[in-house]
Amino acid sequence: MPNLSTGIGLQFDLLPQLRISVAREFQNCRFFQNVVFEKGKKRMSERADHLLKTIWLMHEKCVVDSESILSQVPMQVRATAKMLERNGLISAKNGQIRLLPKGHKKAESLIRRHLLAERLLSDVFQVSDKEMAKSACAFEHILSPEVTDSVCTFLGHPPVCPHGIAIPRGRCCAKFTKDVKPVVHRLLDMEIGEKAKIVFIAPGRNKTLDRLAIFGVVPGNQVRLEQKRPAYVIQVDETVLALEADLCEGIYVKNLNGAET
Questions:
Q1: 73 in Cβ contact with 51 (< 8 Å)
Q2: What's the CATH fold of domain 103-174?
Q3: Which residues pair with 201 in a beta bridge?
């Protein structure tokens, strides 16, 4: 017959180790669960943001019907619509999806950060379109309002992204300041004798801008400002052009450093 006291002794000797082992396993399990939960929560949040941005962009095109909007996003992104509706960000009824004030504010903020990031990556870092889109998606989730306004000021408060989509205005645009000299600015703001590279031309400013392309006034080409009065006179390659101020207002340039000639 087994020795009962020995058995009891062994049980009590192993109990502290067993408790430690179980506690460690429980902590590891909880840690793993927390990591999985946080990753899932982040993924869901990013999908919801994706849908908010899509709704905002479609609204800009005057499209509000649910089928047209949801067809623009993957199935897993569509699944966040109910969550957005529960949280008071969108209204989905009668076959239409509309942004509520809370959702419009958030969507506009996301769009602003994303498009400014695209402008920064394109104009300053000159990354490819593919890399620009991916990186801009990451930027939109990490830029604070203060940093966003600083980027906007640094770039000269650009009106459109590299693809011509209007960038929502921010507080910094309303109280335009030159405390931080912008990298990208209007041709109007150039000094006589300065050389710069044309970065982009704001669409819809004036149809004459389209015709200027035949004279080389296109993004990527260099321009030199010869005079400002009575008209703006610029030189592009071997061509000298006289432009009115309203035309120059829609042409955005980046000053050339010593290496770019």
A1: yes
A2: Arc Repressor Mutant, subunit A (1.10.10)
A3: 251
